[in-house]
Predict the 3D structure of the following.
Amino acid sequence: MSNLNYLSGLGPIWPPGLMPPGLSYMPDTQRTLVLLKPDALQRDLLGEIIRRFELKGLKIVALKFIRLSDEMLTEHYSHLADKPFFASLKQFMMQTPVVGIVLEGIDCVESVRKIVGATNPRSADAGTIRADFSMNVPSNLIHASDSVENAVTEVKRFFKEDELFSYEKITDRFQFGEGI
């Protein structure tokens, strides 16, 4: 869509005519899902992980604890259903609540994937969340949407529309373009 008031695949982020001034320079704003897994919670890494996204300039537009059910996990990880580790993955993900986060920013999906690192922490680039804080799969701390299309589906899977917030931050102007 040519209207810059739209997020990729998610529709308008501000009601017509209410787009905050100065944000027309954000050409490819996206939203993506992040789930902080039970090992992140148990190891007291929630703040450190969230801090990395904030330092990058990504905006938190939703944040909550989620108690995942067997049904939710079967749907979310359906692409892994035939793998021998599927049952243990679901069991791991139901040990504690997870932290669900929706982040927003320019090329957000790709940016988050770079910050998170490769699925196997031992293969992840130094400086990524997984390389710095984990050694094994599935205890790799975090799930992040792997494409814009999957991000749209996953955000809708874990968050209701009224749980997603749109707001202007003064830092948007500095991190994404024109300044004040």
Remarks:
- Residues 121 and 130 are 5 Å apart (CA to CA).
